[in-house]
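We were asked to recover a plausible sequence for a given structure. The inputs and outputs are reproduced exactly as logged, with field labels preserved.

PROBLEM: sequence recovery
POSITIONS: 336
GIVEN STRUCTURE:
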């Protein structure tokens, strides 16, 4: 009787092992069948919440895609990754596609899906400010962003809207690398700084500064961050780009129809060092100022605003027509 019992236990354990191996093999085969796409994101930010939602909610997987996201920390590095075939798709400011085109690229970079539609930075003051007025920046040390980058150009545009000359009325500091701007401010550089989230809210909570204004609210709608790829890749992998864009659209709609608390919980794995309450605050702030695009279509009015801001900043290398660097055919097909 005892031998029979041992025999049955052995058979059961063998069956469990075989079943587990089979299931594991099926999962591996299923993953191997998915098409791999390498995405280079310009920075890691809650601003890009829909992208992380597309991964975590399985929207990319539903489309048969295995998406790998790599943070490249800066527009130049992100574009280099795309141009050198280190990435298939870049998530970065639309201005970078204009710079590449102006250099006479044989294979231009095309914007095919919009993720954010306002600036994502905030003006943070070192000291507590009562009744903030933009005139308070005059004569102050202002730690800005990279010259020619979208945050800096929008920052200068907003200052000009408030009759402040960014070259003469403030002491503009631009010699700090993008990845080190927050650390520089925390170390004592600047009276004011232009920061992305969640850093701005973290600094405020830790008493290192106070958020006094939103550049997104001040500058209006603009194609701030978009997914782009080489024109050749877009032509050769049209079906792949369509699947990718469809997953992004699902994520945009999910974020638009679910609570801030739900969204924060979904993207928390990408911000392990950030408290969930901070993530909720940031998502809420971006939602309230309509920073998250609710569909991937980059329209012509937004593009023209981008070109206007670049021209105002003296960074527009040449006039670029909307249809030259923007292809909305896939986004429009998906939304319809």
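RECOVERED SEQUENCE:
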């Amino acid at each position: 009787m005892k031998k029979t019992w041992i025999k049955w236990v052995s058979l059961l354990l063998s069956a469990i092992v075989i079943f587990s191996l089979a299931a594991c093999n099926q999962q591996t085969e299923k993953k191997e069948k998915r098409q791999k796409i390498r995405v280079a994101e310009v920075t890691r930010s809650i601003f890009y919440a829909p992208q992380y939602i597309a991964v975590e909610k399985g929207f990319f997987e539903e489309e048969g895609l295995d998406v790998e996201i790599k943070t490249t920390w800066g527009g130049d590095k992100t574009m280099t990754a795309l141009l050198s075939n280190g990435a298939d798709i870049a998530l970065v400011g639309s201005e970078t596609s204009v710079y590449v085109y102006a250099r006479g690229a044989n294979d231009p970079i095309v914007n095919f899906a919009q993720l954010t539609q306002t600036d994502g930075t905030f003006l943070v003051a070192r000291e507590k400010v009562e009744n903030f007025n933009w005139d308070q920046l005059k004569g102050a040390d202002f730690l800005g962003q990279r010259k020619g980058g979208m945050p800096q150009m929008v920052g200068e545009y907003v200052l000009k809207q408030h009759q402040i000359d960014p070259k003469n009325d403030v002491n503009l500091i631009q010699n700090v690398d993008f990845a080190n701007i927050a650390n520089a401010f925390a170390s004592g550089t600047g009276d004011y700084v232009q920061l992305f989230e969640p850093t701005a809210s973290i600094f405020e909570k830790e008493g290192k500064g106070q958020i006094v204004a939103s550049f997104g609210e001040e500058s209006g709608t603009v194609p701030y961050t978009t997914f782009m790829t080489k024109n050749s890749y877009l032509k050769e992998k049209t079906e792949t780009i369509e699947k990718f864009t469809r997953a992004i659209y699902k994520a945009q709609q999910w974020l638009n129809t679910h609570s801030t608390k739900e969204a924060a919980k979904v993207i928390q794995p990408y911000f392990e060092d950030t408290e969930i309450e901070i993530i909720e605050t940031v998502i809420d702030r971006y939602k309230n100022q309509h920073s998250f695009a609710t569909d991937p279509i980059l329209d012509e009015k937004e593009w023209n605003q981008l070109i206007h801001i670049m021209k105002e900043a003296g960074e527009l290398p040449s006039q670029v027509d909307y249809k030259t660097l923007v292809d909305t055919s896939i986004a429009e097909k998906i939304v319809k």
